[in-house]
Specification:
single chain, mainly alpha
Length: about 210
């Protein structure tokens, strides 16, 4: 199977609490990546070509559902970096533009992967809809803290999504996207004067 995510992928709020993370997922339009589990459970157990076909179709549908969940978070990140840009300056403005470009590449790759799986990629909301749910952003640090929370939420979402993907190539590429999000987090922590490697392990299991 060809790589369904493109080969270009790079390989002070702290961690958001449960309530904040749920708020971000709701704002992005995500319900839960675990919804794919019901699709996988529908895979047939009968012998024969018909059962194999059913299983394959169910797996592709499940993969598309999981990818759409993280795609919604990519759309949210794009809206956030776009909204925060006017408050940034100097190196942080330059870096935010770079991050924005990478989030757009992530979204485009996810859209293509979903289409190749035979699914329909979710559409982004309007900028107005996203901004209604954003906290009040008044300073550069406000933007950086908000971006940090979003990036950490995305990392947790990808960590939860990757084991649910049936295709090895999708898992590999989603892991590469997640590594890029972690790079964003490191830069944002440094810009906020926080340790850039705050813990030995990142599990992504905090809900």
């Amino acid at each position: 199977m060809a790589n369904d995510l493109d080969p270009w992928l790079p390989g002070g709020h702290g961690h958001p609490g449960g309530h904040k993370r749920r708020d971000f997922l709701r704002l992005a339009g995500v319900t839960t990546v675990a919804s794919a589990a019901t699709i996988f459970a529908a895979c047939g157990s009968d012998d024969g070509e018909s059962a194999k076909t059913t299983t394959s179709e169910a797996a592709r549908e499940g993969d598309a559902t999981v990818l759409n969940a993280v795609l919604d978070l990519e759309y949210l990140a794009i809206a956030a970096y776009t909204a925060g840009a006017p408050l940034l300056k100097g190196d942080m403005l330059r870096l935010s533009r770079e991050f924005l470009g990478q989030e757009k590449q992530h979204a485009a790759a996810l859209e293509r992967a979903i289409t190749r799986l035979g699914g329909t990629a979710n559409k982004a909301k309007s900028e107005t809809e996203y901004r209604r749910g954003f906290p009040r952003l008044r300073t550069q640090d406000d933007v950086l803290r908000f971006a940090l929370d979003l990036e950490q939420t995305a990392i947790a979402a990808y960590a939860g999504a990757i084991p649910k993907l049936s295709a090895r190539e999708l898992r590999q590429s989603a892991t590469a996207i997640n590594a890029n999000e972690a790079e964003h987090v490191s830069v944002l922590l440094g810009a906020l004067g926080k340790p850039q490697v705050p813990a030995a392990f990142v599990t992504g299991t905090r809900s």
